[in-house]
Specification:
Number of helices: 17
Number of strands: 18
Helix content: 25-40%
Structural class: alpha/beta
Radius of gyration: 27 Å
Strand content: 15-25%
Length: about 525
């Protein structure tokens, strides 16, 4: 699913009005009806008090459409206009006149804290105050209103975006944003829904189709894309009947040090479990018996050193190499990695101490295979690579610049892991808090390595691997819960994650709700 920018959303609205020969007011009516339908389907006429807060721009116009249809369907509705400026949009004024023709209970005008209505925690709030066009913080009394809404503890539904939340920067003040329980976003989610600094303002979100021009949606290139099952299914490569293990490549996993052999074990198991034909683990001598005993499916090569990687030498021909996990940053290891990178031409997946070594000696970045290297840092490792950032938008900007400069794929791990490549962000939708556990990153390294081994290009392997990694964890927690999830369980669930790709969701049978004519 594409994530459109603010400018692209405006362009889509204008193009739709032109190509479908409808006015902006009619498009607003269409959007408001979709929100009404969503509410009506769930409430079925229940007389829970609904407080609809409308701004004086187009988002407020959406709110007036919603309120009007709720009123005509007999709901217990109270409508308010947050009168924060003298400027009113044309479509707001049109819908303000329409709601006055619909009910004798005209919207209440709010202009100060004394006007704030009483709201009980069992009520419903519809937030249609500010939309995506907001470019400055709210007035102090409007911030007080937002705090009043939050303190009520009522279920809050935001229209398109929580009021006060920008689409392209982090708010200056938490009190300047509506904290929504649910956001219904028109046609496309917003990037701010998926960033650590801003995701807290909307607990859940859903996209509503308001009929934006299909050609525009299909043809327009976006900076960000949301990755779910439908996006990864075309990436999946089925196996031929007469295929053999040689067709799926040889993965080499290099890493480990005394006391940290488990990281290589996890990455190696993940690489084979995701479908690599062969896996070899390259470890210090102290890891030989561990790997051979715990993972008999793997082959093992040992370093000349007992406790650390000191000289990376092998006589096999791997298709891809995953390295860095548990490696340590001893001087001998740093020297060995630099020596190896100077001659290596094989695609790489680099994690953990491999990244820490490169961060300390940035000249090594020039030795990485271009367009065929994947870096998978956790937040502190990412900071060492790209430098400090002031907020999530700055982080993405720096990550993009880093990817373009060094021609590498960068994985920004998090609740919604984001893969960065050149000018594009791929935002993952799978995963859960249980993945904040030791070894989870090692498993991801092995998954991406194993996919590249099978012939997936580096970008496809990363996007697909991040999805499967999260999906396997989602499946695993159904049995063990968040707190008891360990990295090995993610590997064990990879097969089910693959099979889930082809499961058809059950379609609920519901009658389509048509609003009455206003």
């Amino acid at each position: 699913m594409k994530i459109f920018s603010k400018a692209q959303i405006y362009e889509g609205d204008q193009l739709t009005s032109k190509k479908q020969n409808i006015s902006s007011t009619e498009l607003m009516e269409r959007a408001g009806i979709q929100i009404f339908n969503w509410l009506h389907l769930r409430m079925q006429g229940a007389q829970v008090p609904i407080h609809v807060f409308c701004g004086i721009g187009n988002n407020g116009g959406d709110g007036l459409v919603i309120a009007r249809h709720l009123i005509t369907h007999g709901y217990n509705v109270k409508t308010y206009v947050v009168n924060c400026s003298d400027k009113r949009s044309k479509d707001f004024l049109i819908n303000y006149d329409l709601i006055k023709q619909t009910t004798k209970k005209w919207p209440d005008m709010l202009a100060c804290e004394a006007d704030f209505p009483e709201i009980n925690k069992d009520d419903i709030i519809v937030d249609a105050i500010f939309g995506i066009g907001l470019n400055r913080s709210a007035n102090d009394w409007v911030k007080s209103l937002f705090v009043h809404l939050r303190n009520s503890q009522a279920f809050t539904l935001s229209v398109d975006i929580p009021s006060g939340l920008y689409t392209d920067k982090v708010p200056e003040d938490d009190n300047g944003v509506v904290w929504a329980n649910y956001t219904l976003s028109f046609q496309s989610p917003k990037l701010v829904f998926f960033l650590p600094d801003t995701s807290k303002y909307s607990v859940q979100w859903e996209v509503l189709d308001i009929g934006i021009d299909r050609e525009f949606l299909y043809m327009t290139e976006t900076e960000a894309e949301l990755i779910g099952k439908h996006e990864v299914l075309p990436i999946y490569r089925p196996r031929e009947k007469y295929a053999h293990k040689g067709d799926f490549g040889h993965s080499l996993i290099i890493g480990g040090s005394y006391g940290k052999i488990g990281s290589v074990l996890l990455a190696s198991r993940a690489a084979l479990s995701i479908g690599a034909g062969l896996v070899t683990s390259y470890v210090p001598k102290c890891g030989y018996q561990i790997i051979q005993t715990a993972f008999p499916e793997a082959m093992v090569i040992t370093d000349v050193n007992d406790t650390m990687i000191s000289d990376i030498v092998f006589d096999i021909e791997p298709k891809v190499i995953g390295l860095g996990i548990g490696m340590g940053i001893e001087n001998e290891t740093v020297f060995a990695l630099e020596k190896f990178l100077k001659t290596n031409k094989i695609p790489l997946v680099i994690d953990a101490d491999g990244l820490n070594i490169i961060s300390k000696k940035k000249t090594l970045l020039k030795l990485l295979p271009e367009e065929a290297t994947v870096l998978t840092p956790h937040p502190k490792e990412l900071e060492r690579l790209i430098g400090k950032w002031k907020d999530d938008f700055d982080k993405l900007k720096k990550a993009k610049a880093f990817s373009k400069k060094h021609k590498v794929i960068l994985v920004i791990k998090g609740a919604n892991t984001i893969t960065v490549y050149n000018d594009k962000y791929y935002v993952n939708t799978t995963g859960n808090p249980g993945m904040a556990t030791a070894g989870s990153g090692d498993v991801l390294t092995g998954i991406i390595t194993g996919l590249m081994s099978q012939g997936y290009d580096a970008l496809a392997a990363t996007v697909f691997g991040v999805y499967l990694h999260g999906k396997a964890a989602d499946i695993a927690i159904e049995d063990v819960g968040y707190q008891s999830l360990i990295a090995s369980y993610i590997i064990d669930a990879l097969g089910e994650a693959y099979m889930d790709l082809f499961k058809q969701p059950e379609q609920p049978q519901v009658d389509e709700v048509e609003p009455k004519e206003s």
